[in-house]
Design a protein that fits this description.
The complex is a heterodimer of chains A (about 325) and B (about 350). Chain A has a single domain, classed as Rossmann fold. Chain A has eleven helices and eight strands. Chain A is globular and about 50 Å long. Chain B is an alpha/beta fold. Helix content of chain B is about 35%, strand content about 20%. Chain B contains 13 helices and 14 strands. In chain B, helix 10 links the parallel strand 13 and strand 14. The longest helix of chain B is centred in the N-terminal third of the chain and has 15 residues. The chains are: A alpha/beta (about 325), B alpha/beta (about 350). At the A-B interface, helix 5 and helix 6 of A face helix 3, helix 4 and helix 5 of B.
């Protein structure tokens, strides 16, 4: 399948938008107004942008503790995200969830949660609902490399394979679970996608920092899911630039090297794609500059808005334990 | 008159017939035994998409049920033994119970989870636990323990229509009981089993059956007990119990599990906080000894209290004399590890 220049531009813009939002979150964090554990995806933007390019509004997504990129790329509301980080009522979860619990039902983003592997079966259940409703929607479940170590991964993928559900597991392999490297956690010569294949998923893998490759692999998987030929497992290698949780760089604390980081920084998904587009003259520096300015203004406005809102009334903290109160 | 299992089966058929969004699943739901007969005929009536057997994946299947609920369906999940459901605590506690709250009230999880607690016939350490207090500890879950066919029917029907997650704990020894169905929406309130004036007896699940035997007997000797069946153990609705204790001044609570951090101890705590001045004697909790249930026929005698021990407690709390043989005669004539002739094991 060939894509238009506009489609390429959209991919770039999405990555750039996610990057700029998260860079801003990082720079604001030290002010102490964002008071919740925050996991940034800086460096991993190509996965979310590439996968979302092949999804419709009706397709559903669930995700993990590191979900800002997935949320924004699926069309999640920026104000909802920023206000959620600031703990305000206007947040996407009304300040009850924070960075690790994002939702935007209008965008088809059904929820991200904090426990590793927690949303895997929930995504599979959503896919079962789609199947027995005879829809052509697909569900995307974002996971990391550590989720493969959770029992619920096997339980859920087994059920998805058994019922041939329209579900795509997107595994972002950034090689670390908090600070524990993959080699401490899984046998060295075993590939993540082979594990999934053994359970019965159709498997693909690729460069998670190459946004076009991500888009192409994902679009194929989703199109297959739509006609009853799922489930799929897509493994994408990538790298988080910042610390596991928080706004800083942490290459000095000893679990990984500056050299490794720099090597991955060379593979910056945004710079790579931008260079490619410039070389093929699909984009001018002026367009990028204009776009940056637009995003910047949008972010400035949302940060200012979030800061200006009062905190939710503490009297409302006990609401919504039940939909229907006893 | 229909049996407890038939009442559940009837409940399934009613909700599945009236609402195409109701789906039912669980390990063994379509096997030859059909979850002790409670799921008889469902597959044939509603088809394999809505009634399906599952992989042996308790946590995964609970999450899948939650996902289906978020996707617009109303799943009813069942486990033949509660003990296996312990594998699903992440999905129960971190997802089902919190989803509505942690996403700001946008989407609740209308899932119903049936759990069956075993007893006797050597069910032993891991086939006999009634861990209602675990679930009752978590805000966001409704936890029911129906003790009659009618309540079992109503709990299932009401829970299926409930937008919030509901757990229904069925005591295996109740499956053979029989009764008449009266429709009711009041499952969140305790059931007043019998009115009385000397003591308030609050029962959970199967303990209601044992308590009734004791209370009927003692009534002939002038001891008047007010008995409540706490069919909903979370959230607790205790207004009627407070009112009762304020009149009787005495409280006996019968829990079907261990006593520490139990629903029973919490009921006593709440009564003490609310109605302490009304109490004439210290309240009493009856619960299981603090060790796992053993398996051997020889070791299980005495592990569960019976109507005899309940009667002893009541007599002591009330401080009235009753002929000793009245109480000793409450010993069941059959083996101590079965509820009646209908139960011949194996589980």
């Amino acid at each position: 399948m060939t894509y238009s220049a506009e489609a390429s531009l959209a991919l770039l813009m999405m990555m750039l938008r996610v990057r700029m939002v998260e860079e801003r979150i990082a720079s604001e964090y030290s002010k102490g107004l964002i008071r919740c554990p925050t996991h940034l995806s800086i460096g991993q933007e190509a996965v979310a942008a590439g996968v979302s390019a092949g999804l419709t509004l009706e397709d559903k997504v669930v995700s993990t503790h590191r979900a800002h990129a997935h949320y924004l790329a699926k069309g999640g509301d920026l104000r909802g995200l920023i206000c959620e980080l600031y703990g305000k009522e206007q947040g996407c979860s009304a300040g009850r969830g924070g960075s690790m619990h994002l939702v935007d039902l209008k965008a088809g983003f059904y929820g991200s949660t904090a426990i590793v592997g927690n949303t895997i079966p929930i995504g599979v259940g959503l896919a079962y609902a789609e199947k027995i409703s005879y829809s052509s929607n697909t569900v995307v479940i974002y996971i990391g490399d550590a989720a493969i170590e959770e029992g619920v991964f096997y339980e859920s993928l087994n059920f998805a394979a058994l019922h041939r559900l329209p579900v795509l597991f997107v595994c972002e392999n950034n090689m670390y679970s908090v600070y524990t490297p993959l080699k401490e956690r899984q046998p060295e010569n075993r590939r993540l996608e082979d594990v999934a294949a053994g359970i019965g998923a159709r498997c693909l893998s690729g460069d998670g920092n190459d946004v076009e490759q991500v888009r192409n692999l994902s679009a194929f998987a989703v199109s297959e899911c739509r006609v009853g030929r799922g489930p799929f497992f897509l493994k994408l290698d990538t790298y988080r630039w910042r610390e596991h949780c928080g706004p800083n760089y942490d290459n000095h604390i000893g679990y990984r090297t500056e050299g490794e980081f720099l090597e991955w920084k060379e593979k910056d998904p945004i710079e790579r794609f931008l260079l490619k587009m410039k070389e093929s003259e699909k984009i001018s520096g002026q367009v990028i500059e204009n776009f940056r300015r637009e995003i910047q203004a949008e972010i400035d406005a949302e940060i200012a808005f979030a800061e200006a809102q009062p905190y939710p009334d503490p009297k409302t903290a006990s609401l919504n334990v039940f939909k229907v109160s006893p | 008159m229909i049996s407890y299992t038939e009442a559940i089966n009837l409940g399934y058929k009613e909700v599945m017939r009236s609402d195409p969004k109701v789906v039912a699943f669980g390990l063994g739901i379509n096997d030859p035994k059909r979850i002790f007969g409670t799921t008889n005929g469902l597959l044939e009536m509603f088809g394999a998409q809505r009634v399906f057997d599952t992989p042996t994946s308790e946590n995964g299947m609970t999450g899948i049920g939650i996902g289906m609920a978020l996707g617009g369906f109303k799943p009813i999940m069942v486990h033949q033994r509660l003990d296996f459901f312990l594998l699903a605590m992440d999905q129960l506690v971190n997802s089902a119970a919190k989803w509505n709250y942690m996403f700001g009230g946008q989407q609740s999880v209308p899932i119903t989870i049936r759990l069956i607690t075993g007893r006797g016939w050597g069910q032993g350490p891991t086939h006999s636990q009634s861990l209602h207090s675990w679930f009752a500890h978590i805000p966001g879950l409704r936890v029911y323990m129906p003790s009659t066919p009618s309540d079992a029917f109503n709990c299932l029907v009401n829970s299926t229509h409930d937008p919030d997650p509901c757990i229904i704990i069925e005591h295996r020894w109740l499956h053979g009981s029989s009764g008449v169905i009266h429709r009711s929406k009041d499952m969140d309130l305790p059931r007043l089993v019998v009115k009385g004036s000397d003591i308030t007896v609050v029962c959970l699940s199967y303990a209601t059956v044992e308590a009734q035997r004791a209370v009927q007997k003692l009534n002939k000797y002038g001891i008047s007990c007010e008995v409540f069946d706490m069919r909903c153990v979370s959230p607790l609705s205790l207004e009627e119990v407070f009112r009762s204790v304020e009149q009787t001044g005495r409280l006996l609570v019968l829990d079907t599990s261990w006593g520490s951090c139990s629903v029973g101890s919490d009921i006593i705590r709440r009564v003490c906080e609310r109605s302490f001045e009304s109490l004439k004697v210290a309240p009493k909790l009856m619960s299981l000894p603090s060790h796992p249930e053993p398996t051997s026929f020889g070791l299980t005698r005495g592990f569960h209290y019976t109507s005899r021990e309940i009667a002893e407690s009541i007599v002591k709390l009330v401080g009235k004399d009753v002929p000793l043989n009245v109480i000793t005669n409450l010993y069941a004539q059959m083996h101590h590890d079965v509820p009646g002739d209908w139960f011949k094991g194996p589980f």
